[in-house]
Amino acid sequence: MGGNSIGKQFTVTTWGESHGPAVGVVVDGCPAGIALSEAMIQVQLDRRRPGQSAISTQRMEGDVGVIMSGVFEGVTTGAPIHIMIKNMQAKSRDYEALKSLFRPSHADYGYQMKYGVRDWRGGGRSSARETACRVAAGAVARALLAPVGVDVFAHVISVKDIHAETFDRSQIEKNIVRCADAQAAQRMEELIMAARKDGDSVGGVIEARAEGAPAGLGEPVFDRLDADLAKALMSINAVKGVEIGSGFGAGLNFGSQNNDQMRMADGRPVFMSNNSGGIDGGISNGNTIIARLAVKPTPSILKEQMTINSSFEEATVKVEGRHDPCVLPRAAPVAEAMMLITLADHYLRHRSSRA
Amino acid sequence: MGGNSIGKQFTVTTWGESHGPAVGVVVDGCPAGIALSEAMIQVQLDRRRPGQSAISTQRMEGDVGVIMSGVFEGVTTGAPIHIMIKNMQAKSRDYEALKSLFRPSHADYGYQMKYGVRDWRGGGRSSARETACRVAAGAVARALLAPVGVDVFAHVISVKDIHAETFDRSQIEKNIVRCADAQAAQRMEELIMAARKDGDSVGGVIEARAEGAPAGLGEPVFDRLDADLAKALMSINAVKGVEIGSGFGAGLNFGSQNNDQMRMADGRPVFMSNNSGGIDGGISNGNTIIARLAVKPTPSILKEQMTINSSFEEATVKVEGRHDPCVLPRAAPVAEAMMLITLADHYLRHRSSRA
Amino acid sequence: MGGNSIGKQFTVTTWGESHGPAVGVVVDGCPAGIALSEAMIQVQLDRRRPGQSAISTQRMEGDVGVIMSGVFEGVTTGAPIHIMIKNMQAKSRDYEALKSLFRPSHADYGYQMKYGVRDWRGGGRSSARETACRVAAGAVARALLAPVGVDVFAHVISVKDIHAETFDRSQIEKNIVRCADAQAAQRMEELIMAARKDGDSVGGVIEARAEGAPAGLGEPVFDRLDADLAKALMSINAVKGVEIGSGFGAGLNFGSQNNDQMRMADGRPVFMSNNSGGIDGGISNGNTIIARLAVKPTPSILKEQMTINSSFEEATVKVEGRHDPCVLPRAAPVAEAMMLITLADHYLRHRSSRA
Amino acid sequence: MGGNSIGKQFTVTTWGESHGPAVGVVVDGCPAGIALSEAMIQVQLDRRRPGQSAISTQRMEGDVGVIMSGVFEGVTTGAPIHIMIKNMQAKSRDYEALKSLFRPSHADYGYQMKYGVRDWRGGGRSSARETACRVAAGAVARALLAPVGVDVFAHVISVKDIHAETFDRSQIEKNIVRCADAQAAQRMEELIMAARKDGDSVGGVIEARAEGAPAGLGEPVFDRLDADLAKALMSINAVKGVEIGSGFGAGLNFGSQNNDQMRMADGRPVFMSNNSGGIDGGISNGNTIIARLAVKPTPSILKEQMTINSSFEEATVKVEGRHDPCVLPRAAPVAEAMMLITLADHYLRHRSSRA
C-alpha cells in the first residue's frame, strides 16, 4: 500500500529510481493466453523514450524493455508479467549541485517532508523515468484489449496558447509534437524551440481517446470509469487537470444543450452528440471515450529561481541539464498507457457484472 | 470490489438505493478516540439535503443520520462506524413512466447494458441520494482532521457564464448558491430560477480548499494526493472535470511563471504563489490545497428529448418530477466530503512513511 | 482497511456491536441477476441463532435478517447488498461487572491495548454476534454458487475426546450437535451438558466440505484457495487451527502414501484419494474441498479465574450470563458461510483467468 | 489482483518462474529510514537455498539477492524495494518428459485447468523457487521489526513420527534439520536419508515463534493477526495446516484448562500459560506468538505413480531430478519470512489504531 500499484484486477506495480540500475513493472492479473512479445512493448517504449526528436531531452536512453516472467512460448500464462528496463547514461554528478536544494514545483520538498530522506539523483523515484514502466504495462493492456476492438490513442491539442484546429489522426505520429493538425504542429514546435532557447518551458493539453470500448465498463459508485481515468491520468507527472467529454465546458451549456440524445441507426443505439465523453453515471455507454489532460510547463528551467535548501535557508537555483522544454509529445504515449491500463482493469472487472 | 468503497486506510463503503428503505455508509479504519456525535453529522447532512432553498429540489427529506455502530460514550472505538439515513417520501410512481426509457445523459442506459437489470425507481443506485452517505462519512473525516488543524470548505465559483469575482469566505453559507461573492450569487440565483422556469438546467464550477493540511500527504507514484483527489471528486454525480491549482490554466503559463518559488518567513518555508494547488509530485507541500470541479447541468430536464427505450425503439422523454435545476449549491458539501475523506485516508497512510 | 472486510471480488464488510441497535453486512461485488430472498437468508440465520437448543445459549434473539438494498424484484442488481439484523434482549447490565475486568482468553485485553477504549457491553465488536452477519453473507454466496453446482456443508467431527466414527450426511441437522454420527452425537451432547453443569466448557473440531466446486479456483501464489480458506476460517471466533485434506496427518505419511494418484473414469479425471482436500498448489482440482477447524472451549466459564483489571491490578472473575458451553454446533453454519464467501470470491476471480 | 501480492500496508509482490531468467520481489509500503543492506538479505537467502546440506536438493543455486531500488546510502527511502535473484542451472531439459504429464499432488493439473496454458519448466510459477523471494522480503520485514524488539525464528518439531522432545534454541541452526532437539535431529536426518534412498519423501511440522511483539497487533474482525498468519503460512508450498497456540489440541481441554489466566509481575501483565499462542480475539496480547505448520511430504518422488496426461489419457510418472526428500529444513526460513511479513504489515497498520 505504498502507493506504487494501480488497478484492482489488472494490477500494475512499478519500481525503480532514475539513477538506480533499472526500473521495472509487474503486471499482475493479466489473463492467460494473450499473445505478447517484447516487440509489442518496444514499439511503445520508443514513442516515449528521450532523445527521439529535437524538442525532447537530448539524453539518449535505449529504454529496452525485457520480459522477465509471465510469458511462455509467446503467450501470457496468467503469472505476473515483469518487464525491466535498464538505466543508461545516469549522470548523477549532474545532480550533485541540487543535492540539498528544493527545485521549485518539483517533488523534492514534499519527499523530504514525507520521508526525511531522499534519493536526489535525477529526481529518484519522482523522475518521469518511472513513466517508461507505465508505457510497458500499457502495451500489455493494449495486447489484451486490441483483440476485442478497443483502440486507444492520444494527441496534443494545445501547447500554451496554440490550439489544434483540425483533426487528422494520420498526422499525429508524423510530427514531433504529436498533434493531429500539421499546421498547428509547426507553430507549436517553433514555440517550444523558442522556450528552450530562452531557458524556459511550456505546457498544454493532451487528449486521449478510446474507440470501440463496449458499453458497461465502470463500477458504481466510486470506481466509476471516469473517476478511475481521472486518477490514472492525474497520476502522470506534471498533469494538473483531467476532464471527460465536454468537461469544464459542460458548465457553459444548458442541460438541453449538453445532454446526449439517442436514436437508433442500423439497429444499434447511437448518440447525437458526445458531451458525456462516452461515460454516463460512471459507466461507458459505447460512444468514444474522451479525456483531456492539462500538463503544466516542465518545472526544470534554466532561469534562476528563488528556493530554499534542506537546512531551510534561502537560496537560488538554476536547473541545468538535459530537460524537455515541453513534455507533451512524450507524455502522449503515457496518457495512452494510463487509459489502456484503466480500461483493461474495468474490462476484466466487468466479467463479474452478471450471474 | 464492486466499486462501492473508497480509501485504503480510511475506507468508506456506501449502500442503498434512492427508493429503498434507507441508504447508509460504513467507515472502516477510523482510529479510536475521536469525539463523534450525530449532531456533528447532521449539520453536514442539512447542508446537502433537498428542499433547503428555492433553487434546490422541493423534495422534503429529513435526511436524519443515525450512528448504528463504532461509537461508544461519545468517542470512536476503532470498530466500523455505520451511519444510516432512512428514505422518506419515495414516490416510485413518479418513475413508472421512465421504467423502460433511458433518460439522456443519465446512468440508465449504462446500468442496463452492464447488469441486464435495473432498479429504475428514482435512479436506484445511481441517484444523487447516495451522496448523503458521502457527506456523513465526510463528517467523520472532519472529526478526525479538525483537531489536527485541517479545515476544508467548498464554494461555487461559477454558474454557467457567471463567475464569482470576489472572495469572502463568510458569505458562502449566507446565500443559497454557496458563492463567496454575494453579488455574483444574486445573479447566479436569478439565472438558476430562469432555467427552472424554462424547464432547463445549468452547471458550473465548484472550488474546494483544504487549509492547514501538513506537508507530506500523498503516496508516490499512483496514489498521489492529487490523483486520489481527482478520483474522489470525479466520482461525484455530474462532475466532468477536476483540476488542481492552476489546472487547465497551467498550460497557458511559461514554466518561469508557473513555478511556485520558495522563501523563508518567520522560520518557515513559504511559497510565493500557489499554482501547484498545494501539491507537487503528488505530495502535499503545506500550502492550501485547491481543487476545482466542473459540474454539468442536471440532465433531468422538463424539455422533450429524443431517446430510446429498453426494447431499443426510438422514443421521447420529458423528465417530470422534483429536480434541482442546478446541483452546485448542494454538491458543494459533497465536494468537501470527498476532499475530507481523501485527506483522512492520506493522513493515516502517512503514519507509515517513516521508521 | 480497518480489517472488517474480506474478499477481493465478492467483498463482505460487517459492522455492529453486540449491544448496539443492530449488526449488519454489506456484500459488494455480487453479480446482478441472482435470485435472492430474505427467506433464503433466514433459513441460515436460524441455524446459527442463539436459543435453538438445550446446549446453546438461552438468549432468545430473533435474528431477523432484512435486505435493505441491492435486490429488486427478487434478483440482485449488482448494487451492494446490505442485510441488517436488529439486536434484541441486549442486557448490558449483565456486563457492568465485567466493565473493567479482562476476561481470560477473551479479546478484552487486546482491544484495550490496541484502542485505549472498549465497548465492554457484551464483548462489543468482538462478540460472536458478529458472525450472524457472516451467515447472512454466506447465504448470498450460496445463492450465487448453488446454481453452478457448488454444495457446502459443515458438521462437528469431535467434541473434546469424542469423535464421530461414521458419516451420514442426513443425520447432521437431525441432532443438536450437528454431528453426522448419531450415536457420537448423543455422547457429545451428554458431555456438553455435563460441562455446562460444572460451569465449564468444551471445544472440538468442525469439518466443512464443498462438493461440486470446479477445478481452477484459487490464485497463485498468495491468494491460494487454501490460504484464503485458512484466513476465512481462522477469522471465526474461537478457531485456533485450520487444516486442508490430510492436514496435520499429512506429515505422518510417506509421499508415496500421501500423493493423490489420478485415473480416468467415464472420460473424466478422478483422484484415487483425497489427501489434498481438493486443492493442489493452491488451486482447486475438482475433488471435494475439505477443511477442518479446531475450535477452543468457550472462554466464558462460570468458574472463578485469575485475571487483572484495566487499572492493572490483580483480580478474579466469574463470567456469569447465558453462554454456550460448546460453540461448535452454532459455529458449523458460520464455517459454511466463510467457506461459501471464499469460494464465491474465487469463483468470480477465476473469470479473469483466461483471455 | 492476480494473487501475487500479500499485505495491505507492507505489501509484498513476487514475480518469476523457476526456469525464467530470474525471480524477484517488490516490497511496497516499507517506511523510510530503515537500515537495509544486501548482506542482511543474503544471510537469510543462504538459509533457504538449495544444496546447503546432504538432505536438501543437490541443485547448487547461488541465490544472490540484489537490491535494485528503494535503498539509498544504506537506508530505505520509502520507495518500493525491488530485490532480484537470478536463476542459475535451470535445466529445463529435465522437465521435457513431464511436459504433458500431471505430477500427482502437484500444481500441474490445477494450473492447466485454470489457465489453459502452463510453463512446465521446473514447475514454472508454482515452483518452490518462488519462496526465495519471500525470504528476501522477510529480511526487509526483519530489518523493520528487529529495532522494535520483535524476534522471529522457526524450527522443525517433527519429521513424520519423530518428534522433538527438548527445546534448545541454540541447537536449531547447528543441525541440518533445523531442530531444537539435537538428538531428535539425528534421528530425523536418518529417516530423511532413508526416505531418499527409497525414492520416497517425508513431511512433518514446523513451529514459528515471534518474541517481543507488542500487544495490539491485528485488526478485527477479518484481518485478525491469527487469520492473516494462517493465510500467510498456508500460502507456502506443501503446507496443509496451520494452528495457533494449543491449536487442534485446544479441543481436548476444558475451558478452565485452556484459558490463559493473568497476573501482574514486576508491574506488567503476565499470562500463566500460552494456549492462545499470543493472540486473543485476533489481536496480539504481548505473549510469544506461536504458530505451527503441517508440511506434507514432497510430492516429487522417484517411485512410479499413476496419473493422466494433458490429453486426458492414463499414464504413469516417475519424477526424476534433484528434489528434497523433506522440505522442512528449508521451509523453516520461509515460515519465518511469512510470519515477519505478516507482523510488519500489522505493526504498520496498528499505527492507525488511535487518534
Overview of this structure, please?
The structure is a homotetramer of 355-residue chains. By secondary structure, chain A is of the alpha+beta class. Chain A is 25% helix and 23% strand. The first copy, chain A, has a single domain, classed as Chorismate synthase AroC (Chorismate synthase, AroC fold, 4-Layer Sandwich), CATH 3.60.150.10. Chain A has helices at residues 38-48, 93-96, 108-115, 131-145, 182-197, 225-234, 255-258, 328-349; strands spanning 5-6, 11-16, 22-28, 65-67, 71-72, 75-76, 81-86, 151-159, 162-163, 204-211, 239-244, 262-265, 268-271, 279-280, 283-284, 289-295, 305-308, 314-317. In chain A, β2 (11-16) and β3 form a beta hairpin. Chain A is globular and about 65 Å long. The model of chain A has no long low-confidence stretch (mean pLDDT 95). Chains in contact: A-B, A-C, A-D, B-C, B-D, C-D.
**Rg of chain A, Å, rounded:** 21 Å
Oligomer: homotetramer
CATH class term of chain A: Alpha Beta
Number of helices of chain A: 8
Largest interface: C-D, 119 and 119 residues
- Overall mean pLDDT score of chain A? 95
What does the secondary structure layout of this molecule look like, with pairings?
4 copies of one chain form a homotetramer.
Chain A: E1 5-6, E2 11-16, E3 22-28, H1 38-48, E4 65-67, E5 71-72, E6 75-76, E7 81-86, H2 93-96, H3 108-115, H4 131-145, E8 151-159, E9 162-163, H5 182-197, E10 204-211, H6 225-234, E11 239-244, H7 255-258, E12 262-265, E13 268-271, E14 279-280, E15 283-284, E16 289-295, E17 305-308, E18 314-317, H8 328-349
Antiparallel strand pairs in A: 1-2, 2-3, 3-7, 4-7, 5-6, 8-9, 8-10, 10-16, 11-16, 12-13, 14-15, 17-18
